[in-house]
Structures are given as C-alpha cells and as structure tokens.
UniProtKB/TrEMBL annotation:
Limits of the B12-binding domain: 173-301
Domain HTH merR-type: 4-61
Protein name in UniProt: Cobalamin B12-binding domain-containing protein
GO terms, biological process: regulation of DNA-templated transcription
Length: 301
C-alpha cells in the first residue's frame, strides 16, 4: 500500500501553501484528507496528483472555486492540455526553446545577434518583453528556477558588455544616478534603464540594487547628479516602496535639493509624492524623459 503524505509534504509537492489547503478543505470539502494514527491530515498519491493539476491551472489564472467544482478527470484533462500548449509555445519562442534545451552558448549567440541587429536601446526593449515571457513561463512551471537564473546571468553579462563598449558621454551631459531602494534585489530593470539612458547620451552612474534611501541621496550629492532614476519590480512590497520613496525624497531635499527623482515601475508612486517623484512605467517613458532632460523633446506625462 502506497504511503500517504502529510500536509507539509503535499505543500512541497504542489507549491500550494498548507493554509490554502486547509481553507479549501473547509470551504469546498476538497481536498478530503484522511487522518493518521496521530490525528494528522494524510493525503493519498491520487489526491496529490489531483492537487498538482489544480495548482498548475491556478498558476495559469484559473479560479480554485471553479476548478474544485468540476470532475477530477476534467481537471486533469485541462492541465494536460495546458501543458501541451505551453510546451508548443516554448518550442516556438527562440529564447525559451534555448533555455529549455540548456543551450547556454546558443542563448548567448542568439542574444548577441539581436544586439548587433537592434543596437543596445532596441535590444533592451526586446529584452523587456522577453523577460516578461520568461517570468510567465516560470509562473506556469514551464521554466525552472535554475533556468531562469541562467537566463538572467546571460542577459546581465551581455548588456554590461554592451554598456562597456558605448562611447563616453559628451562633455556637460546630465548625470543620472541609478539604483533600486532597500529591499529591492531585482537588477535587470535597472540595467535596462541604464542602457536606454546611456544610448540617449546621459552620463550614468549605477549603485546597483538594494541601496538604503539615505545613501542614494548622499550619492546624488557626491556625484552632482541631475536625476536619481529608481527601478522597482512588479512584486515589490508597496508599503516598503512608499516608505523608502518618502525617505528618499526627504534625503534629497536635505542633501541634494534640485535633484529630480524618476521612478521606473508598473505601480505609480504614492499619491502624496506624485509632485516630487516622476513615474516612468516603461522604457519608452524613460527614453522620452532622457530626451527632455537633454533638451531633445517635450515633457511627457
């Protein structure tokens, strides 16, 4: 007889938090675990396989309430169909297919070819979309964590190589300080923004990710920067972002008055800071802001 799994083992196997499993059990009667001799919930292997199918579809946007109300065979059928569709999409996607083939050298060659074709600014525009595709594939289980990390390292190295080959900014070019605030460890968005600003002719200095607000303000003064450009990922904690941005604005007022603050993120800055922080939701917004800074364009909202 196959061994039943405890709730923590089911959590590890399905990526469904145990608290969620308990809520589903209470609300919908599913899953329906038995109890072992110690009185703990135990789940059969069939139950775990069913929960894997549910989790797979939930990651793709399905609603648990609807899934748990239909026959289990139908849930399995939908999960298998979604897997086939994702596999086909990966095969059609040049980057995802190379990632899944674990062809790192092929991936580098492909990305370098796109860089040569598009130039650094167009290249990072394309990379922004590709990175979203990779993130979506990871959320659906189509890309492993190690594959996503290998992709990120490859992209970072190529963009940094391209930045190192850019000509020096012209004399008197406005200096832009780039950073992510404390608690934000994602660096690709920051790197893409740097590439766009450098391509437009800005003099960029990057502090990298996870920098305390007070240090960003002090650096802006030390480097005599016209602009502080921040990057924030979609998964950033909104409360932490609000606090860090508020601290930064106060620091800029104290240490580097007159320095503009640009905030590159999908989410807008807190309403209270809207007059002091300029929201740039896309790389194109950053490009237009740079042109305005350089006197090449009009103010964009």
């Amino acid at each position: 007889m196959a061994r039943a799994l405890l709730i923590e083992e089911v959590e590890a196997a399905t990526a469904i938090p145990r608290a969620t499993l308990r809520v589903w059990e209470q609300r919908y009667g599913i899953p329906g675990p038995s109890r072992n001799e110690a009185g703990r919930r135990s789940y059969s292997l069939d139950e775990v396989e069913y929960l894997k199918s549910v989790a797979s579809l939930v990651r793709r946007g399905a609603r648990p309430k609807q899934l748990l109300a239909i026959p289990r065979d139908e849930v399995h059928r939908r999960a298998r169909a979604a897997d086939r569709e994702d596999a086909a999409r990966v095969r059609r996607h040049p980057v995802l297919s190379l990632m899944k083939a674990h062809d790192v050298h092929g991936l580098r060659a492909h990305l370098r070819g796109r860089l040569l074709l598009l130039g650094i600014s167009g290249f990072v525009d394309e990379l922004a979309t590709t990175t979203q595709d990779v993130g979506s594939a990871w959320q659906c289980g189509g890309v492993s964590i190690f594959e996503e990390h290998a992709f990120t390292e490859c992209v970072e190295n190529i963009v940094r190589e391209a930045l190192s080959m850019q000509p020096a900014p012209p004399a008197g070019a406005p200096r832009v300080l780039l950073a992510t605030l404390e608690g934000e460890h994602h660096r690709l968005g920051l790197l893409f923004a740097q590439a766009v600003l450098v391509a437009e002719g800005c003099d960029c200095i990057s502090l990298g990710p996870n920098v305390p607000s007070r240090e960003v303000a002090r650096a802006a003064k030390a480097y005599e920067c016209r602009v502080i450009a921040l990057s924030s990922s979609a998964g950033a904690n909104s409360r932490k972002v609000k606090s860090s941005l508020g601290e930064l604005v106060k620091g800029v007022q104290a240490h580097a008055p007159g320095t503009a603050v640009w905030f590159g993120a999908n989410q807008a800055p807190p309403r209270l800071l809207m007059g002091q922080v300029r929201h740039l939701p896309t790389l194109q917004h950053a490009r237009l802001a740079a042109r305005e800074l350089l006197g090449k364009g009009r103010r964009t909202k």
